[in-house]
Specification:
By secondary structure, the protein is mainly α. The protein folds into two domains: 185 residues; 139 residues, Serine Threonine Protein Phosphatase 5, Tetratricopeptide repeat (Alpha Horseshoe). The protein has 20 helices and no strands. It is elongated, with a radius of gyration of 32 Å.
Length: 422
Amino acid sequence: VSFMNNQKQQKPTLTGQRFKTRKRDEKERFDPTQFQESIVQGLNQTGTDLEAVAKFLDASGAKLDYRRYAETLFDILVAGGMLAPGGTLSDDLTRTEFCVFTAQEDLETMQAYAQVFNKLIRRYKYLEKGFEEEIKKLLLFLKGFTESERNKLAMITGILLGNGNLSASILSSLFNENLVKEGVSAAFAVKLFKSWINEKDINSVAGSLRKVGMDNRLMELFPANKRSCEHFSKYFTDAGLKELSDFARNQQSIGARKELQKELQEQMSRGDPFKDIIVYVREEMKKTNISEQTMIGIVWTSVMSSVEWNKKEELVTEQAIKHLKQYSPLLKAFTSQGLSELTLLLKIQEYCYDNIHFMKAFQKIVVLLYKADVLSEEAILKWYTDAHVAKGKSVFLEQMKKFVEWLKNAEEESESETEEGD
């Protein structure tokens, strides 16, 4: 029985034992020579006329096996012939003088070549994956190419990244230790990013990097002993890519803030004394150059994330008030400036809007923090009149109306008392 069961679970597979291939067919199956001959011949005929090249490649796809010989096809288009491991041309085979590596080294020519690849891949969608693999391989072979060949490869890769023909994940090849160690990666990256930013802009580049998690890995273009924001910044700024330096710096500080927030949350969950937490935060502010305004946002998020909130709306307000009363000394330590108070108010507004259970708690939270001397009446009035954001403003302004009127009256009364005193 067990034998039968075993048989059942095995899915039927099509094994082709019965169809013995004739020897000569088998050889032909994985022999790119014929394929290479055809492509090289066509490229020699079309020459530098890239329109004609594109047409020839389009038509050949119907006759030749692009799927099987994708790597051969791309090798020829880039380098003129099949590449041996390391990036040298295989000697024994025919090659063409008309390819990316022999073309003129300027942006215009590379843009025209990028169009050839773009048309080819849009026509034969299944080549997309193979093309990315090819570029990844070529990047690993950089040391086998001449400086001019590298420059052209950098330019065209930047253009293709800009056009969306390639995913930024191909950049992982540049983190290869041998390329990094000798400074090949960084030098290549300069040319690649210049061409990419020229094609699009830094925001588009940043978006593509983020999409595949490359935004936080750019430092890996340098050896471990030079992997600092300062070095990165100086290197790319000196190379004329200040935008990329600024982007990396910003990524670095976002990363640092996330770390800081996590650390704070842990300290609060552990119940560390406030004075220790305050000392820690002030040191971090000095060390990473964070302003009080930015800091109060991080502190607020940490305070609100260090607790499990009740799922019931009617109970959450009470819980929030109790929690914030306890943590008000911490909030007070980082609202010494009017701008920090306003930032905190906006953070509270956003928080209550984003967490629907807190919609009704807004006014109570603000009043509590006013009484605890975290928020001043100036900040509250400024928020009320013109500094609030759109998120749920009608609800929150309505909630605050009475309290704001009370504040204004109190202000007028104290002013008139002062006048009488004069």
